[in-house]
Amino acid sequence: MNIKTWILVANAAEAKLLTTDNLRIGELELVREFVHPESRKKISELMSDKPGHYKTDGNAHSAYSKNDPKEVEAEHFAIQLAHELKSGWDKNQYKKLIMVMSAHFYGLIKKHMHDNHALEVVHVLKDYTRYPLAKLHESLKEHLLV
Q1: Higher confidence at residue 106 or residue 40?
Q2: Gap between the Cα atoms of 25 and 17, Å rounded
């Protein structure tokens, strides 16, 4: 019995979800592509209003939260991808997961992923989102030494 492997190749703006039965000798199949164009927008395009100050009763003054809009959008995309991974796991579509992305984006997704000790996760600290499938396949085999 082959153990299905999912490979998520992602950055804050785009992702590819691939599958294979055997990374060493099998082919990579594209399951789904994701795009998050908001992550590519300029900060000025993401902000409808600039954060400002307001006065409360009494002598206290405060400012609105100064969240980085690009980081907020990256987190929204990470949540979407984490939900996709959970859905596939719940449907028994894979048993092993290879996550190919920067350490920062991996951290964003990881904090929204379900905890499952039965899931084998391998993390590759690379951004291969622009690679064609054949080059991605070869790079993963070299990187993972399979």
Answers
A1: 106
A2: 19
